Amino acid sequence: MTLSPNLRGALWILASAVGFTVMTTLIKFLGDDYPAALQTFYRQLAGVLVLLPLIARDWRGAFRTTRPGIVIFRSSAGVLALIMSFYAYQKLPLADANALSFTRTLWLVPLAGLVLREPIGPRRISAALVGFVGVLIMLQPGAGGVEAWLGWPQLCALGAAFLFALTITGMKVMTRDHTPFVLLVYAAVLGLVFAIPPALFVWRWPTWPDLGLLAAMGVIGTLTQGAYIKGMEAGEAAVMAPVDYTRLVFAVIVGFLLFQEVPRTATVVGAVIVVGSTLFISWREHQLAKQAAAEPT
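Below the sequence we write its predicted C-alpha cells.
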C-alpha cells in the first residue's frame, strides 16, 4: 500500500513528537544532577557521533559553505537556545515548557519582516498579537508578584523560542544555496564546539548509567530533528503543523504520570490560544506560498 505524501509526512512528524517527548523527559529526569549546559554538550556530542558516518562519505561537501558568518551565528544562537530550553524543561512543568516553546512561530512573524523583508499582512500580525495574549494568560502577570509569573525558567523558555526563530530565519536564507544536510552538519559540529566552554563551568563526570541516559537523550534528539525534517519534506507544512502539536498532549500525559504535574487552567487556556494563532499563521503562510507559486503560471 502506497501512503500519500501528507500521511507519510504526518507519520514522520508524529515520530518526531514522540521522540521529542522522550528527550524532554530525560532532560527533566537528569536535571537535578546535570545542569542544562552539560546536557547540551552531551546532546551535541551524540549528534556529531551519529552524523560522523555520513560526514565521512564526503567531508568536503558536508562543510562546503559560502556564508560562514551566518553559519557561525546560527550555531552559536542554536547552542544558547538549547541551554535555555533545557533549563526551562528542567524547572517548569512539561506542559508549560512545551506550550511556551510554540511561541517561536509567533516570533517568526516580525523576524520575517525585519530580516527577510517579507510583506506581513494584518492577518498574520493580528494572529501573532493574539498568540502573545495567550502567553500572558499562561504566565498570569500580576498574580503573586513578578517573580511568581516571570522567573528565570519562563524567561529562558521565551528566550529560547526567540533564538530558535532566529535560527529558522537564518536557515531560510541559507537554504537558497545550502543543502539541509550541510546545515545539519554545521549545527551539530559547531554546536559541539560552542557547547564546550559553558559545559566546563559545570562539569562533572557522569556515572555509567547516567552516561547511557545522556547518550540516549542526545541520539534521540538528533533522530527527532531528522524525523521532523523528513516530515516537513514529505508533506505540506500547513498539514504537518497540527500534527506537531501532539507533543503538547504527550507532555501533559507524561508530566502527570511520571512527575505528578497537573496542568493549570491558565496553562490550558493560554496554550489553546497560542496553538490556534500559530496554526493560523502556518495556514496563512501556506496560502501565500500557493498564491506565489501560481502567479508565474
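The chain has a mean pLDDT of 84.
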